[in-house]
Amino acid sequence: MTELEQRLVEALITAAWPLHGQVSFVIGIVLGYFIWSRLYFRVIDPGIRTRVGAALGVQLIWVLRHSASYQTAFEWEFARYYRWSWGIAQEQQRTFLCDGAVLVLSLLVVNIVAGLWPIGVFLAVALWLEALSYIVFFPTCCLMLALYAIFWSGRYAVAGMREATPRAGVRSSH
Fold it and tell me: pTM of the full predicted structure?
């Protein structure tokens, strides 16, 4: 093995933490992220939606965006990605500004803050503390991104997330 190859291999496996500490952390962070993802939607989100909705003076529910079942003034014709987000329960309260604010709050609170903080912890440990070797970091990074895609991209549906009943004569486009 050449000196360059030796340095490359050393860089791949060298980390501030011993291997058993790295593996323990990775198992904990991946399992914790999975549990957090399930817990958030079932336990924490209803309380957050209630508080945010009360502050805005509307009732917030989970809606399937860009579908015929959720009629709103805040709709772009080119956006055809069906995704779950917060929406306003009463159709007469769905003004462009109010529904736009609810969508932005949903993205900030759910998809960014609640969905990304475990990834932030993982990256801080891996990159700033240099605690994980690349051999441990890369597979874990793939697992964390997969969990984000499953739970936080707007495709995951749990009890309480349901497509609203379409208005009479309106058919869903999916």
Answer: 0.80
